[in-house]
Design a protein that fits this description.
The complex is a heterodimer of chains A (about 375) and B (about 600). Chain A has about 375 residues and is α+β, with helices and mostly antiparallel strands. Chain A is globular. In chain A, the strands form four sheets. A six-stranded mixed β-sheet of chain A has the order 7-8-9-3-10-11, with helices on both faces. Chain A starts with a helix and ends in a 9-residue tail after the last strand. Chain A has nine helices and 21 strands. Residues about 1-15 and about 380-384 of chain A have low confidence and may be disordered. In chain A, strand 4 and strand 5 (about 85) form a beta hairpin. Chain B has about 600 residues and is mostly helical. Chain B has two domains: about 50-80 and about 385-450 and about 465-610, MetI-like (MetI-like fold); about 90-145 and about 185-310 and about 325-350, MetI-like fold, CATH 1.10.3720.10. Chain B contains 29 helices and no strands. Chain B has helices at about 5-10, 40-65, 80-85, 90-125, 130-140, 145-155, 160-165, 170-175, 180-200, 205-215, 220-225, 230-245, 250-260, 265-275, 280-290, 295-305, 325-355, 375-380, 390-420, 425-435, 440-450, 455-460, 470-495, 495-505, 510-540, 540-545, 555-565, 565-595, 600. Classes of the chains: A alpha+beta (about 375), B mainly alpha (about 600). Chains A and B meet through strand 1, strand 2, strand 7, helix 5 and strand 11 of A and helix 1, helix 24 and helix 25 of B.
């Protein structure tokens, strides 16, 4: 992958605005009968890059728009840098919240050139004309599109439009920048490149960032902290590692990427949170796993297996579950396999540097550190 | 506490992930939702008061007369069908029947023709594609009575065609009958159908055609496969063509009257202008006129609400043009030119030529004589003649006031219609404006005469009868529904995120509107203004029934000349009025080009998305 000039340029920030801390308390938003946000509470420390992760309809966009002041919450409180912007009768309009935003569709004004789009937030600043022009050209330089300053948005590619939107958001010298799925309209290559640029530029600018996405790999790559939303509720907040290794619920586990999940029966406890369980389709091959929440006797249990837990071996290997390779895909750095381990059960996205051909038999071993056992939850309102 | 919070609460305290929602108890969320505190809907109330005064009260009270004349002291019965029977018999009955079949035929003809022209302009390499689009705009701006006049001047036995030595007597008789009426009304409905079908074709990428051809369809089968995709546009074109023709007054008042071919709008006018005036019969005709436009409009509304225009997407490729071979390309171009010569050229040439003919249409020894006397008569009038100056100035003043008032009101209403999450108020406004598009100008005009002349209104409320403000109000009411629909589409195309981005990046409401809203819709607002301005100058139905004594708009003055058989003078005045209208259009568009930033002019009404 090529490195864009802005990545290196971004390492020296021109300005360091004071990052804003954000606190959300008991936020609720209704659209008629539909509850989009329900009792959401959240604290974002100054300078943190928080990613809100959730499926479509989980309320992440509504939460971001409430932070921006585009939506008016039905109830709850929001403070930015300790200043209430939503509290009872108080509702500070967006233009007085001292924040910036990168929109999903970029929201570039089609009648303004790139330079004028970026200069827009500076119009109300106390900077002189020359200083503003310098600031704009500096930002365009940093995002690598200085040569496009006089173009109109419809003369730019998606990636270039994205860079204009980013430059505009950083132009304002604000302490909080919001990102509304800014990479969702880009192809895979550009997405990867711009993800790195957003991460480096935002951190170099020293601002607090709240970023929403439904892509867990994007979330883990960008975030200092991740908040997971489901059905309008914030169901877990933590570092990417915590979310991945110790999901608070089956929903979080599934949404953040699994190779498989199966019903299991408890065999024995190996320690405080370590257990041995058996799979119904392989009762002779007990599997090690750890619990992220207390288990009680009689609980219905499920085993959740991360992709990283699974290793493939030739059929002659003396340990592991027997499996049959149903599909294999070359990914560049290796192979991803789909392996049937029971009559209807399969493990997906099983990585190996060695290719196992379709319909070949294999052995599958599971690393207990990336397998966890949880109580089975009723499928309520979708995937648990 | 909710179930998800409860789930989190059972986690081992040692678990490192911070439990969300832990900082709040349910009781803390007890602040009354702001959305629950109902604000007084002043905006909605104001809009409905304005619509009430402009449209609902005058038209509603007039329509009630159809069956309840005693409500307004126009008869002795609270309920009667007597006037219904009267309206359905004799000349009025024939008028209704004539209007219905002519409108149906015109709607079909104009849609078929418009579809062909739109396809040629958008999907082929025919020469002069921009010119044909521009000519459609000109066709839209020329009122039907002007077209009739032009055709009449051309085909008169001693008219404009005679100058070129062409005998047209055989055609003149045909023109003053159903044929002429259908031709003029079809050309008048053509631009409406063209713009609607063009919009449908514009979003129809060539993938659909390609897919059909790749899967073995012949050209004919491909056409049959692709056309239903733009069926909503075709239905809209038919509905608008039908409604426009039903409500047309210009042809009915000029061609229909002289051809002894009664049409509903004229019989309505006659019912109140004959002595004694019969408002109840007029009301019955008005009700039938309005009701007759409901079925096609409902079909159109249903078709467009099913989002069938959603062939537009970011992935739609620019359609590929069919490349005609040189000879075919020239032939097709000539065919299009022939169409516009017929639709626009012939009446304009007729009017222009006719205005220079001495004693137009009257036999003179030695044949036709050319003269500028008609222009002299209206530019330097004698006592007997009327100058063009005062009526044209008055019409321009009316045009400016009506176009500006309509523009402001249409913008406000269009914004409400364009809101994505509109409530009941938006839906009612939408249905109301859709319905009122179909109210003929003559119905509105007669409704205004009736309502604003009622004793209760003049003595307790507003005494505007026989004043210019009343004429202005009626013309604003006439233009408002169409204008609102005209701007609502482009307003709805502006992505809300553009304004949201402005607000988030520090702009207040005014700066957001000025910098992120106005530039995107300025062009459509200017075109909307021009459309209303020119339509108001040339408007005949309302002007004819509501002009105050001694304050005639130019369209009324022209009709007065024509009524007195001063055809050359009336035609000359028509030519000057048309030239002046086109001059204002050129001036306004020129000023727009000169005074607005470059970025504003880049935005078309279908290209607001960046």
């Amino acid at each position: 992958m090529t490195t864009h000039p802005m990545t290196s340029a971004a390492t020296h920030a021109v300005t360091t605005p004071t990052a804003s801390a954000v606190a959300v308390t008991a936020l609720r938003k209704e659209f008629g009968e539909k509850v989009a946000l329900d009792d959401v509470s959240l604290e974002v420390e100054a300078g943190t890059f928080l990613v809100l992760l959730g499926p479509s309809g989980s309320g992440k966009t509504t939460l971001l728009r409430c932070l921006a002041g585009i939506e008016r919450p039905s109830a709850g409180r929001i403070t930015i840098d300790g200043r209430p912007v939503v509290d009872g009768r108080t509702f500070v309009p967006p233009e007085r919240r001292d924040l910036a935003m990168v929109f999903q569709d970029y929201a570039l004004w089609p009648h303004l050139t790139v330079a004028k789009n970026v200069a827009f937030p500076l119009a109300t600043s106390s900077r002189g004309r020359d200083e503003r022009a310098h600031r704009v050209s500096d930002l365009l330089e940093r995002v690598g599109i200085a040569h496009l300053a006089d173009r109109f948005p419809n003369e730019l590619s998606g990636g270039e439009q994205q860079r204009v939107a980013l430059a505009r958001a950083l132009a304002a010298d604000v302490g909080l920048v919001l990102f509304d799925e800014p990479l969702s309209n880009l192809d895979a290559d550009r997405r990867e490149l711009l993800r790195i640029e957003i991460a480096t530029l935002t951190r170099a600018a020293g601002v607090t960032a709240v970023y929403i996405t439904h892509d867990q790999s994007e979330a883990f790559a960008l975030a200092d902290r991740v908040g997971v939303l489901n059905h309008g509720r914030l169901v877990q907040v933590g570092t990417p590692e915590e979310i991945y290794r110790q999901p608070a619920s089956a929903f979080v586990a599934r949404f953040t990427g699994l190779a498989g999940d199966f019903p299991v029966e408890l065999v024995e406890a190996d320690g405080d949170d370590r257990f041995r369980v058996t799979l119904p389709f392989a009762p002779d091959h007990p599997v090690g796993a750890h619990a992220v929440a207390p288990l009680a006797p009689g609980d219905e249990l499920r085993l959740f297996v991360r992709g990283a837990a699974v290793a493939l071996h030739p059929a002659t290997h003396d340990a592991g579950l027997p499996g049959l390779v149903r599909d294999v895909a070359f990914t560049g750095r290796g192979y991803e396999h789909v392996v049937d381990v029971g009559a209807e059960e399969a493990l997906t996205k099983v990585f190996s540097t060695h290719r196992y051909d379709r319909l070949s038999t294999v052995r599958v071993t599971l690393d207990p550190a990336a397998c966890f056992v949880m109580r089975a939850q009723a499928r309520k309102g979708g995937r648990p | 506490m909710s179930s998800a919070s409860a789930t989190l609460a059972t986690l081992d305290p040692a678990a490192p992930s911070g439990a969300a929602g832990s900082a709040s108890a349910p009781g803390e969320a007890g602040t009354p939702p702001r959305s629950a505190r109902r604000r007084l809907p002043w905006g909605t109330a104001t809009i409905w008061v304005v619509l009430g005064l402009l449209i609902i009260a005058p038209v509603g009270s007039f329509l009630l007369l159809a069956t309840s004349p005693r409500l307004f002291q126009q008869g002795s019965q609270y309920f009667t069908l007597h006037y219904v029977a009267q309206a359905l018999s004799g000349s009025t009955g024939r008028g209704l029947l004539n209007s219905l079949w002519v409108s149906g035929l015109v709607a079909l003809l104009s849609t078929s023709l418009a579809t062909l022209v739109a396809w040629l302009v958008q999907r082929t390499n025919v020469y002069g594609r921009r010119v044909w689009g521009l000519l459609m705009w000109v066709l839209l701006l020329v009122p039907t009575w002007m077209m009739t006049l032009g055709w009449g001047d051309l085909l008169q036995p001693y008219g404009a065609a005679t100058i070129a030595g062409v005998t047209t007597q055989w055609l003149y008789g045909e023109f003053f009958g159903p044929l002429g009426i259908v031709v003029v009304l079809t050309t008048a409905a053509l631009p409406f159908a063209y713009f609607i079908v063009s919009a449908g074709l514009h979003g129809l990428g060539s993938e659909f055609e390609d897919a059909a051809r790749i899967h073995g369809a012949t050209r004919w089968r491909t056409l049959r496969t692709v056309l239903p995709i733009i069926a909503p546009a075709l239905w809209s074109a038919i509905a608008i063509g039908f409604a426009e023709t039903m409500s047309d007054f210009g042809v009915a008042f000029t061609l229909g009257y002289h051809a002894h071919f009664p049409m509903a709008t004229y019989t309505l006018f006659a019912a109140i202008s004959n002595f004694p005036a019969n408002f109840s019969v007029a009301a019955v005709i008005a009700v039938i006129l309005i009701v007759s436009t409901i079925p096609p409009i409902v079909i159109q509304a249903r078709a467009t609400r099913r989002r069938s225009y959603a062939v537009l997407s970011g992935r739609t490729r620019t359609p590929r043009r069919r490349e005609f071979r040189p000879v075919a390309r020239i032939a097709v171009t000539l065919g299009l030119a022939g169409l516009f010569v017929l639709a626009l050229g012939a009446p304009i040439i007729g009017a222009l030529g006719g205005s220079f003919v001495r004693n137009l249409g009257i036999y003179a020894v030695g044949g036709v004589h050319l003269t500028t006397a008609a222009y002299g008569a209206i530019l330097h009038p004698t006592i007997a003649d009327k100058s063009i100056g005062a009526p044209l100035l008055l019409s321009n003043q009316l045009g400016v006031v009506v176009a500006t008032a309509t523009g402001v009101l249409a913008y406000v209403l269009g914004r409400r219609l364009a809101v994505a999450r509109g409530g009941w108020s938006q839906r009612i406004t939408d249905v109301f404006l859709l319905g009122t598009v179909a109210i003929p100008g003559v119905v509105l005009g007669v409704g205004y005469i009736f309502f604003y002349n009622m004793g209760f209104v003049t003595s307790h409320f507003l005494n505007l009868y026989q004043t210019l403000p009343l004429l202005m109000l009626a013309q604003t009411a006439n233009a408002l529904p169409g204008q609102t629909r005209f701007v609502a589409g482009p307003l709805g195309q502006v992505q809300p995120s553009l304004s949201e981005a402005a607000r988030v990046h520090g702009a207040g409401r005014w700066r957001t509107w000025r910098s992120a809203q106005l530039p995107l819709v300025a062009r459509v607002l200017v075109w909307g203004w021009l459309l209303t301005f020119t339509k108001t100058i040339a408007e005949l139905a309302i002007a004819q029934v509501l002009y105050p004594p001694s304050q005639e708009p130019v369209s009324v003055t022209i009709q007065a000349y024509l009524g007195n058989y001063q055809l050359s003078t009336g035609t000359a005045m028509t030519v000057l009025t048309l030239v002046e209208m086109l001059g204002v259009i050129g001036l306004v568009l020129g000023l727009f080009r000169l005074l607005t930033p470059r970025g504003w002019r880049r935005i078309g009404w279908s290209g607001v998305r960046s």
